[in-house]
Amino acid sequence: xxxxxxxxxxxxxxxxxxxxxxxxxxxxxxxxxxxxxxxxxxxxxxxxxxxxxxxxxxxxxxxxxxxxxxxxxxxxxxxxxxxxxxxxxxxxxxxxxxxxxxxxxxxxxxxxxxxxxxxxxxxxxxxxxxxxxxxxxxxxxxxxxxxxxxxxxxxxxxxxx
Length: 161
Hints:
By secondary structure, the protein is an alpha/beta fold. It is built from five helices and four strands.
């Protein structure tokens, strides 16, 4: 009996230690000076970043829906949908009571992108619609290494809602 208890404790110790020991992406702290484009992955040049940022700021000012674009090199093994949702919650994207934020997360080296929407905009930007925007409007540009054009094409569709 003592032997079984020993293996049981050992098993759970390795389970929990092993679960937390692999590399996970650490979401950066919310910046004091907030904007709409965070190019941590170095995907956009300065002028493209500013142009996308200005469109998103104008959209937020006119609709109160905040769209934030974040680029990173890699999720470091994290599931991109989970990471994007946690990032949006961590930074408090969108208005608190309306939950009307949208986070677009691009992990360039992983070749993954996700659009995470708050409950307040899900009726306008459903998961199916976000998937279609990614597949039909964003990815074709990414395949040509035209990230700014792909992100711009995707955002232009958001701005219609």
